[in-house]
Specification:
Layout (H helix, E strand, L loop, with lengths): L4 E6 L3 H7 L5 H19 L3 E4 L9 H14 L4 E5 L8 H10 L5 E5 L5 E7 L5 H5 L8 H11 L4 E3 L9 H9 L6 H31 L13
Parallel strand pairs: 1-2, 1-3, 4-6
Antiparallel strand pairs: 3-5, 4-5
Helix pairs in contact: 1-2, 2-4, 2-8, 7-8
Length: 227
Amino acid sequence: MNKTTAILIFANSAQQEGISKPFRSSQLLFDELNRLTIAKVQKTGLPYFLFSEKEQVGNTFGERYSNAIQSVYTKGYENVITIGNDTPHLQTSQLLKTAKHLETQKIVLGPSKDGGYYLMGLHKSQFNLQTFLKLPWQTSRLTQSIARLVAAKKTHVVFLKILQDIDTVSDVQSILNSFRSLTKTIRQLLRTIISGSSQLFSIYLFLTASFQNQSPFNKGSPVILPI
């Protein structure tokens, strides 16, 4: 067993994603994404650890994520490659490339289009629990903040290609519009989400128009339908 580098899959269960992601059919989508993510990781031959909401410890995302990374280092690994479950275009080859980079480099980042990242490869010398807890997690400033932090330490960062992760329906549309390959099942699930969202938006427009016709002086908020 390789005791130098391990992969940390920091990803909630499909049931939890179905609650937290603001669009319909998200549970079905993330059930398939979780399955594919594990399959891609297993193909690397590297040891890996899955931290769903059952294994995570902490009150905030930053605490839960940082504690998970720390726990892998505690097992004796020099490098940790962290990924989630919301980037369909992540490939096994990128995980292997990251592991190769970590043989000579200290940090590898795979930036996502929203300013965060879909992958981070980190040598334990670059990990400080208290510093990590202060990072702007789940914001568009995350990758930039990490890059500035390591630059101040004069550490070189290896950047992978930018990929799109899935947080909203517009992210789903962006992935479908890209020229990157997707499995047939994932593509069908993404199309189902878009189709369902379009139908809900049509209903929303109809209800809004009808309501406004009945109440021409309405100043309240429009009806909000879940997508």
